[in-house]
Each structure stands twice: as C-alpha cells, then as structure tokens.
Design goal:
Shape: globular
Distance between the termini: 24 Å
Largest sheet: 5 strands, antiparallel
Order of helices and strands: HEEEEHHEH
Number of helices: 4
Radius of gyration: 14 Å
Length: about 100
Amino acid sequence: MNYHLKKHVLNQKGKCIKLGFHAVVTDTPIDTVALLSNPSNDRVILLSFQSNILGNPKIYAYLVNNKRYDWARDEGFSLNQMLELKQEKVFIEIDPSKVAEYLL
C-alpha cells in the first residue's frame, strides 16, 4: 500500500476506534487503492491515492453503493469501468477526512 494512503487509512481507523467501532482494512491489488469497511453495517469506503502534476499527494474517498456495485459486477464491469460510471452512482465521492463518520 502506498505510504500516503496507508497513513490516511490508519488515521481514519483510529477515528473509527474513537467513535466506538472497529473498521476493517482490505488491501487491493492496486497499490494506490484500499478499502475500509464497517462489518456491523456493511458500509464500505474506497480510498484512492493520486498525485497531481507537481507530485503533491491527494487522497480521494468514495462511499460504495453496495446494490449498484453488485449490479455492475454482475454485468461484467471492471473496477476502472465502475469508477467511470458516475451517472450510475456506484461510487459516491465523499470528504476523505470524514471517512470514519460515513462508516458509523
């Protein structure tokens, strides 16, 4: 997992503990993408690290709409194709600093 992404994930995981629940971190085959989930309510957040032209790090966070994700997966869409399906709202962009609150 990318250093900047790991740092953000651990920060959000600490916030989850302060809010009273334990989040599960799932690595993905993509070094710049990780999943953070709350098993008690099946909420999942996709976290992604990207850097701009100047090399400044930026973390993006997306709430996963489980029903639409299952539909897109069953239809044969890849993860990259799902990310491009903005009108289908498979992934809803959220404020990366509020990941723990969205998982609550």
